[in-house]
């Protein structure tokens, strides 16, 4: 009698959880190390380029308005709205109510150190460069000089407007030092969203934001959180 031979099969068991966990840990560790190495390289590159960047942005062709020549009251108006912790923070501020997620230092970093900034990982890089490079090598006065002269102030007839001096001429046909406080606040109101609060194309929205800013400056409104930058939460 011929007996049939049967092949024995081993049924698959349960996955080795610990082995899978170890693999995931190794992959995650490698990803973190690679990311850290990349970001370190970007920060180093920014550091190496800083002197060239300073020469480009801190020259008489760029700097038409100087921080020292702007009345202190107006600097306080601007900072109270745009970056209330500017003189205290090291380039980043995630605590001050009303500050928003982007400081003046970070805004400058985006313009000065990035050719094509895209949200996402670039925000981490922007933060690192702001803290470790820009705020270490540009004084607060230098940062304000650059900001006053290069801040994006909306588009008019397809043309981008940059800096408060140009904005004063375009929106009020006036020199910057001749602006009234109301006109200056109208420009400050634009900074957070230059086209959304554009003086010429969205005057009603600009006027409403100016009123809210005036309440802030008068102490009649206190921002409720970091992201309360439009002062629209009820008191």
TrEMBL record:
<keyword id="KW-0472">Membrane</keyword>
<dbReference type="GO" id="GO:0005886">
    <property type="term" value="C:plasma membrane"/>
</dbReference>
<feature type="domain" description="Glycosyl transferase family 51">
    <location>
        <begin position="61"/>
        <end position="215"/>
    </location>
</feature>
<keyword id="KW-0573">Peptidoglycan synthesis</keyword>
<protein>
    <submittedName>
        <fullName>Glycosyl transferase family 51</fullName>
    </submittedName>
</protein>
<dbReference type="InterPro" id="IPR001264">
    <property type="entry name" value="Glyco_trans_51"/>
</dbReference>
<dbReference type="InterPro" id="IPR036950">
    <property type="entry name" value="PBP_transglycosylase"/>
</dbReference>
<dbReference type="GO" id="GO:0008360">
    <property type="term" value="P:regulation of cell shape"/>
</dbReference>
<dbReference type="GO" id="GO:0009002">
    <property type="term" value="F:serine-type D-Ala-D-Ala carboxypeptidase activity"/>
</dbReference>
<dbReference type="InterPro" id="IPR023346">
    <property type="entry name" value="Lysozyme-like_dom_sf"/>
</dbReference>
<keyword id="KW-0808">Transferase</keyword>
<dbReference type="InterPro" id="IPR050396">
    <property type="entry name" value="Glycosyltr_51/Transpeptidase"/>
</dbReference>
<keyword id="KW-0328">Glycosyltransferase</keyword>
<dbReference type="Pfam" id="PF00912">
    <property type="entry name" value="Transgly"/>
</dbReference>
<keyword id="KW-0961">Cell wall biogenesis/degradation</keyword>
<keyword id="KW-0133">Cell shape</keyword>
<keyword id="KW-1003">Cell membrane</keyword>
<comment type="pathway">
    <text>Cell wall biogenesis; peptidoglycan biosynthesis.</text>
</comment>
<dbReference type="GO" id="GO:0008955">
    <property type="term" value="F:peptidoglycan glycosyltransferase activity"/>
</dbReference>
<dbReference type="GO" id="GO:0009252">
    <property type="term" value="P:peptidoglycan biosynthetic process"/>
</dbReference>
<dbReference type="GO" id="GO:0030288">
    <property type="term" value="C:outer membrane-bounded periplasmic space"/>
</dbReference>
<dbReference type="GO" id="GO:0071555">
    <property type="term" value="P:cell wall organization"/>
</dbReference>
